[in-house]
Every structure is written in C-alpha cells, then in structure tokens.
C-alpha cells in the first residue's frame, strides 16, 4: 500500500509540474501582461487632431481593460513630422501620425489622395481616403500596420496680400508641401517647403508671403494672426492625407483579441477625425472673422481658370503612377467618382 501511495504521489508531482510549465498556464500569465506603446504625433497637444488621437489612445486602454497603455508624444518630440513614418518602421515609436506628403516620392500611389479634385469637406476627404486605401492597400505601406487615415478639409490660400486672380499669384512665395507645392507652381506662385510648425514664424518674418492650407490651420496653428487675406479656392480643394500606422513587430506582439480592439476603435475614429476637421474649419473661419481678415471669393470664370491651371497635375499623376506599374488611372477615376458622390467597386 505504501508503495502505491508513493507512485500516486510521484504522478501528482509530475502533473503539477507539467501544469505549471504548460502553454495554457503561460497564456494565463500573458493575459495579465500590459503592453506599453509609444505614439508620435507632430500636432501640438492643444490641436484638435492631437486631442482626438489622445481620445483614441484612451479608448483603446479602456476597452482593453488596461492591457494596452499608449503614451502620446505630441509636437514632434519623439520624431519630427518628416521622420515619423520611418520612425515607426524602425521602431523609434510604436505608432505614428503624420502626413504622406512630408516624404514626397515615398508613397507614389497614395499621393493621388492629395490631388486638387475639389474635396467639399474633411469628413468626405477622410472617408474617401480610407475607402481607397482599403481597396488598393498599396505595397508602399506594407512595411507598417495601417490603422486608419484622416484628411483635412479643402485647402485654401491664406496670404499677406490680396489674391483675386491668377495674375496675383505670379511670383508669390507660398508655403506648401508635397503635391500642394505643385499646385502653387501651376497657379504661378513659388512654393517653399516647410512643415506646419515652421510656418507661423516664416509668415511673420516674410520668408513666405502666403500658405496653402485648410482653414482650420489659421486657428489651430495661429497662422491667422500673421496673414490678412483668404482666397476661397475650394474649387481646387486639395487635401493632405495623414496616416496612423503601427510598427509591424509591435503589432505582431499583441494577442489577437487586443489587435481586434485596436482595429475596432480605429474604425470608429475615422468618423471622429473627419468631424473634428470640419468642426475645426468652422472654428478657423470664425477665428479669422474675429481678427477682421478678408475672405476673397472667386467668380465662376476665375474659378474655371484655377481648375484648368491644376488639371495637368492630375494628368501627371496618372502618367507617373502608370510608369511605375501602379494603377494611377483607376485610382484617380475612383477618387473623382467618390468626390462627386458616386460609388465604386
């Protein structure tokens, strides 16, 4: 009998040791693990898009029951706006938000999102950008885990001198980045590349005489304080598409259930960012009106001149993308269809 008890005791010990070191027990430990992620954003902490991004991070933490903690680094303190994407690729930050346009040539197909096709508002631009990225899922962003895209409302010209026609654009030094620099060139101006954080001082000191931007920028970045006129150029309304992407290794380390939470929250935040852009545009308009700035409308004839001036940019985009083996023509047709309110396959 004593021998039998000894055998049973040994078996129990073996069972307990196996249980302790079994994959099931390890997974139980993993459920208590907290994943700490860094999020690099170039917007200042007071900007509505940074506030919206912080709300996204807070919601992810809430739904994950604290399993995901995201620390937001605003104002380009972790990586600057042009460095942000590569910073995510290389693991300097786990998550990043910046503009595709800040690394021109890096995203040859998605440059099409910024084209001056007459975007009516930020919500529409944001919705369209996500729809096209989801449809085409280009290889140029295959080195990250895309979470979502957002895009501002139609860009307008804000200047220190009145611009009422294309003739007034000749020789005008305009802050512009990426594709918007080509818009400035086609309108007759001289583009000067710089990020938003640099623009206030450049306008103040006369390094540039104007900026091509969404109207929210005039309040969000306080640039309305250093310009005097706004030309309503929505007929060639371009946007600047902005990515929210995650390092692939950081993504792969997350359990599937936590990946699902991030995906769900990101999907919901598409609409929130679009609305935030439009609300900010309304506030931007009110801000410049309070400052007594002048809004200059363009009549139909002049508006058509501006549209004709930028048409070569659309043609050049298709030619360049096609030359790289990319579906530029299909992308542009889909883009214009969505802007006009149509549906795509």
Describe the structure.
This protein is of the alpha/beta class and 345 residues long. The chain has one domain: D-Maltodextrin-Binding Protein, domain 2, CATH 3.40.190.170. The protein is built from 13 helices and 11 strands. A 6-stranded mixed β-sheet has the order 7-6-8-5-9-11, with helices on both faces. Strand 1 (35-41), helix 3 and strand 2 (68-73) form a beta-alpha-beta unit. Helix 5 packs antiparallel against helix 11 (256-290). The longest helix has 35 residues, at 256-290. The chain is globular, with a radius of gyration of 25 Å.
Helix and strand succession? HHEHEHEHEEHEHEHEHEEHHEHH
Major β-sheet profile: 6 strands, mixed
CA distance, first residue to last residue: 77 Å
Helix content: 40-55%
This entry's quaternary arrangement is single chain
Number of DSSP helical runs: 13
Low-confidence stretches: 1-29
């Amino acid at each position: 009998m004593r021998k039998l008890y000894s055998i049973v005791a040994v078996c129990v010990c073996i069972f307990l040791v196996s249980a302790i070191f079994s994959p099931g027990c390890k997974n139980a430990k993993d459920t208590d693990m907290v994943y700490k992620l860094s999020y690099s954003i170039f917007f200042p902490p007071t900007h509505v898009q940074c506030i919206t991004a912080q709300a996204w991070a807070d919601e992810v933490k809430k739904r994950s029951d604290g399993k995901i903690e995201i620390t937001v680094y605003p104002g380009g303190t972790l990586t600057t706006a042009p460095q942000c994407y590569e910073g995510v690729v290389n693991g300097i930050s786990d998550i990043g938000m910046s503009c595709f346009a800040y690394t021109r040539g890096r995203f040859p197909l998605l440059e099409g999102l910024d084209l001056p096709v007459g975007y009516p508002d930020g919500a529409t631009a944001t919705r369209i950008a996500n729809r096209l990225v989801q449809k085409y899922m280009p290889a140029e962003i295959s080195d990250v885990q895309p979470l979502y895209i957002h895009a501002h409302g139609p860009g307008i010209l804000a200047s220190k001198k009145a611009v009422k026609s294309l003739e007034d654009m000749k020789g005008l030094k305009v802050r512009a980045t990426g594709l918007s620099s080509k818009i400035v060139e086609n309108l007759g101006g001289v583009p000067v590349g710089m990020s938003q954080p640099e623009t206030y001082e450049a306008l103040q000191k006369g390094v540039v005489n104007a900026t091509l931007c969404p109207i929210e920028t005039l309040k969000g970045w306080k640039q309305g304080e250093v310009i005097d006129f706004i030309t309503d150029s929505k007929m060639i309304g371009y946007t600047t598409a902005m990515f929210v992407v995650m390092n692939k290794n950081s993504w792969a380390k997350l359990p599937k259930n936590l990946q699902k939470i991030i995906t769900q929250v990101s999907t919901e935040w598409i609409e929130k960012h679009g609305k935030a852009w439009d609300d900010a545009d309304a506030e931007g308009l009110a801000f410049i009106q309070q400052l007594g700035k002048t809004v200059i409308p363009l009549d139909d004839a002049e508006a058509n001149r501006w549209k004709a001036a930028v048409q070569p940019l659309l043609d050049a985009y298709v030619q360049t993308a096609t030359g790289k083996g990319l579906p530029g023509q299909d992308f542009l047709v889909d883009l214009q269809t969505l802007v006009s309110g149509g549906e795509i396959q």
